[in-house]
Design brief:
The protein has about 180 residues and is of the alpha/beta class. About 35% of the residues lie in helices and about 15% in strands. It folds into 2 domains: about 120 residues, HAD superfamily/HAD-like (Rossmann fold, 3-Layer(aba) Sandwich); about 40 residues, no CATH class. Pfam families: NT5C.
Length: about 180
């Protein structure tokens, strides 16, 4: 029997980009942002403007040193028993991130084969049974069933199934078996 497929975003879903952005932003600009202070804000509003944000995201080693989201490794290992997992990242927006993301996945998720890593621009081409992502711009075009992973910038969006963490994501997906 063919396994169902899941496409899983990296930043904000597997990798804790929120903590890293806050730390880099506060260090670079002498700010005092916290996770609580940016809840419900867009990325551009939370971090000043798009140019400032892009400057942080284009720094060497930014993506290579992202913390792993709690329970992500164990969750993917468990999901792999019943699903084929693809890691999908719109990485071409930040070309410096391409090699860093591959190295990061190799370190933290060595059980994900290279064939199941998709670094792309638009995720509209992704055709899996499920897509777990933190951005509606990707979920709105999902060909399968979208699952929104909670992030500061999407807390006020309610038009997709939402999970707050990896334990909830596993429960939602296992309920479909």
């Amino acid at each position: 029997m063919k396994k169902k497929t899941i496409a899983i975003d990296m930043d904000g879903v597997l990798a804790d980009i929120e903590s890293q952005l806050i730390e880099h932003y506060n260090n670079a600009y002498g700010a005092n942002l916290t996770k609580e202070s940016i809840q419900g804000l867009s990325e551009e509003i939370a971090f000043g403007n798009r140019d400032l944000l892009r400057g942080i995201l284009n720094k060497d080693n930014f993506f290579r040193t992202l913390p792993v989201m709690p329970d992500a490794v164990e969750s993917l290992l468990a999901l792999q028993e019943n699903f084929e997992i693809f890691i999908v990242s719109a990485a071409t927006e930040f070309p410096v991130s391409l090699a860093e993301k591959v190295a990061w996945l190799g370190e933290h998720f060595p059980f994900i084969k290279w064939e199941n890593i998709v670094l792309c621009g638009s995720k509209r081409i992704i055709n899996t049974d499920y897509l777990i992502d933190d951005h509606c711009k990707n979920l709105d075009y999902c060909m399968g069933k979208p699952i929104m992973f909670k992030a500061f910038h999407n807390v006020n969006q309610t038009h997709h199934v939402r999970v707050n963490n990896w334990k909830e994501a596993v429960a939602v997906l296992n309920a479909t078996l």
